[in-house]
Each structure stands twice: as structure tokens, then as C-alpha cells.
């Protein structure tokens, strides 16, 4: 009997990962994306910091559904974690609407300062009690319009069906600019562009290239109307199931992965722009003034909202 118990006990002591807690993390991006690479770094850090007692399993390419599907599953506790567009998060917590306001950030440096600020941490925790909380923001660059024609002014958007995520604020933005906002799941944009279901879309350069949208939309008009950080969210059920130490490890790993993700983003985005040019994409410089003026009512209205105004003021003051 002792001969059986000793090897068994030794095995259990040497393989604590058998009893590790595993969190499932879904997203709709490709394996090449900076976001996915950032999440891999986060998962590695969580495993290292917890000595293998806490692990993260990543499901890329929309394996767990569209971004909205995954967000809803996180809120209900069906899956543990998801990386979603920061604007989409407003559908579940209005505070995140701030991230979807056009021309809120002065430049990329301003956006990145926000992502690491106390006001960002406050926003990430604003959804407590609604089924999820935010762990960290991720850089997703600047968003501009792309289509089969150049969009040099809001007049060029007139009547165009433009894909947006399921964000009411982003829909309002496109409509104010003269387009027809059309929500389409991210992993269906290529086909929608190809078949004419939509006439254009808006996103960052890396999404244009990595998702092959550059094959069916050859003009990228750099109005840079949005700098909307992505957000990694976790189900409150999953977060509350962790020990205080595991929660601390997860938050630390998420914050540390942001620094690495930003570096990867810059390198990846520059590389993707070169790929886009080689694939025949024309990058069009535009006067941002008319775009900014057309959507100014959105900022003015948001500043009158007592829930949003404090966040806007703090962000503008950074």
C-alpha cells in the first residue's frame, strides 16, 4: 500500500497545475494582432505570478462568437473574459460611452496617458454590479474610414452604408457625418464589403490589413475620428471566484501586458501600413476640421450628462 501511496503523493506535489483555475478569454482578432499578442503576454504573466495555479486559455478569431456575443456571455457568466471594442462596452455600462466620443483625445500620446491613469481605473470599475468589470485597456490605434472610394470630407459619406460595431455612440457619429450607420459583426465585415451589404467601414489600419479588408476596400481616408481603446473585461462571477491574491495577480498582469502591447501595436501598425501600400491601398490625408465640426454636438451633449461629464473633464485635463 505504501508503495502505491508514495508515488501518488509525489505526483500530486510535483503537478499542482492539475488543480489550476483556468479562465477562458475570447476575442475576435487574428493571431497576428497586437491585441492577441498582448493577451498571450498577460496569460504568461498570470501563470508565472501564480506558479501555475491560475491560467488563461485564449480563444481567438471569434471562436466564441462575435464581439457582442462574447460581451453578452461575459455579462451572463457563460464565459470568463473577452477583449472587446471600447465603444461596444457602452451597451453594458454607459460610462464607456466616453471612449466612443469622436476627437476626444488630442493625439495618441494623450490616449495612452489616459489608459494608464486613475480615471481609466475608475472607468474600468464603473460596471461593478452589472455582471462584469474591466481589467485593462489595450491600444487599438486610431480609427478612420475605408471604402472603395476616397472619403475626403463628410459630403463623401452621404448615403453610404458604413459598418460600425454595436455602439450607439459610434452609430450616431456616422449618421451625423452623413452616412448610414450599419452594425455588422467584425468577423463578417469582409463578406459584407465584398457583397455590397455595406459601402465602407471604419477601423484602424491593422484591422484593414489583418482581416483582409484591404482586398475589397482600396482607400483608407485618415480622418482619425476615433481613438477608442479596446478593453479586456471579466465576468464578475469569475472575478469573485478568485482569491484576493489571484485577483491582484490578474490585475497586475493585465496592467503590465499593456506596456508590452503598446510596443507591439506600434511595430505591427507600421508594418501593416506597408503591407497595405504593397497591396494597393491608397492612404488619403484629409482635413479633419469638417469631420470634427460635424460631430461637435456629440461632445457638447456628453458634457451635459452628469454621468459622463466628470470623466470627460478629467480626460481633457490630462
Description:
The protein is α/β, with parallel strands linked by helices. The chain folds into two domains: 19-139 and 228-265, D-Maltodextrin-Binding Protein, domain 2, CATH 3.40.190; 143-227 and 273-317, Bacterial extracellular solute-binding protein, family 7 (D-Maltodextrin-Binding Protein, domain 2, 3-Layer(aba) Sandwich). The protein has helices at residues 2-14, 34-49, 67-76, 108-115, 118-124, 168-176, 189-195, 205-210, 236-240, 244-278, 289-302, 309-317, and strands at 21-26, 54-59, 81-84, 132-138, 143-147, 161-164, 180-183, 200-203, 219-226, 230-235, 282-285. A six-stranded mixed beta sheet has the order 7-6-8-5-9-11. Strands 2-1-3-10-4 form a five-stranded mixed beta sheet, with helices on both faces. Helix 2 (34-49) packs antiparallel against helix 10 (244-278). It is globular and about 55 Å long. The protein starts with a helix and ends with a helix. The model is unreliable at 1-17 (pLDDT under 50).
CATH architecture of the largest domain: 3-Layer(aba) Sandwich
What is the highest CATH level, the class of the largest domain?
A: Alpha Beta
Number of helices: 12
- How many domains? 2
Strand order, largest beta sheet: 7-6-8-5-9-11
Q: What overall form do the CA principal axes indicate?
A: globular
Low-confidence stretches: 1-17
The CATH superfamily of the largest domain bears the name Bacterial extracellular solute-binding protein, family 7
Q: Give the N-to-C terminal Cα separation.
A: 68 Å
Succession of helices and strands:
HEHEHEHHEEEHEHEHEEHHEHH
Write down the overall mean pLDDT: 93
- Bin the strand percentage: 15-25%
- In total, how many beta strands? 11
Structural class determined from secondary elements: alpha/beta
The CATH topology name of the largest domain reads D-Maltodextrin-Binding Protein, domain 2
Amino acid at each position: 500500500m505504501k508503495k502505491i501511496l508514495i508515488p501518488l503523493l509525489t505526483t500530486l506535489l510535483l503537478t499542482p497545475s492539475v488543480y489550476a483555475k483556468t479562465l477562458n478569454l475570447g476575442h475576435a482578432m487574428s493571431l497576428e494582432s497586437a491585441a492577441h499578442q498582448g493577451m498571450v503576454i498577460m496569460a504568461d504573466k498570470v501563470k508565472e505570478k501564480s506558479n501555475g495555479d491560475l491560467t488563461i486559455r485564449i480563444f481567438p478569431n471569434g471562436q466564441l462568437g462575435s464581439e457582442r456575443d462574447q460581451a453578452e456571455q461575459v455579462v451572463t457568466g457563460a464565459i470568463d473574459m473577452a477583449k472587446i471594442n471600447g465603444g461596444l462596452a457602452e451597451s453594458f455600462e454607459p460610462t464607456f460611452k466616453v471612449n466612443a466620443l469622436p476627437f476626444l483625445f488630442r493625439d495618441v500620446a494623450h490616449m495612452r496617458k489616459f489608459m494608464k491613469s486613475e480615471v481609466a481605473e475608475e472607468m474600468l470599475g464603473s460596471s461593478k454590479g452589472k455582471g462584469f468589470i474591466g481589467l485593462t485597456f489595450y491600444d487599438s490605434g486610431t480609427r478612420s474610414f475605408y471604402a472603395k472610394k476616397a472619403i475626403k470630407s463628410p459630403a463623401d459619406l452621404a448615403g453610404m452604408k458604413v459598418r460600425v460595431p454595436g455602439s450607439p455612440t459610434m452609430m450616431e457619429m456616422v449618421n451625423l457625418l452623413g452616412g448610414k450607420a450599419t452594425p455588422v459583426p467584425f468577423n463578417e465585415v469582409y463578406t459584407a464589403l465584398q457583397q455590397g451589404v455595406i459601402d465602407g467601414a471604419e477601423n484602424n489600419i491593422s484591422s484593414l490589413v489583418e482581416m483582409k479588408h484591404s482586398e475589397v476596400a482600396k482607400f483608407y481616408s485618415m480622418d482619425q475620428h476615433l481613438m477608442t481603446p479596446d478593453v479586456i473585461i471579466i465576468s464578475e462571477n469569475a472575478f469573485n471566484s478568485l482569491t484576493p491574491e489571484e485577483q491582484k495577480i490578474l490585475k497586475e498582469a493585465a496592467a503590465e501586458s499593456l506596456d508590452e502591447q503598446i510596443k507591439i501595436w506600434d511595430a505591427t501598425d507600421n508594418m501593416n501600413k506597408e503591407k497595405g501600400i504593397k497591396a494597393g491601398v491608397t492612404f488619403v490625408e484629409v482635413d479633419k476640421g469638417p469631420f470634427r465640426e460635424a460631430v461637435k454636438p456629440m461632445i457638447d451633449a456628453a458634457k451635459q450628462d452628469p454621468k459622463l461629464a466628470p470623466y470627460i473633464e478629467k480626460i481633457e485635463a490630462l
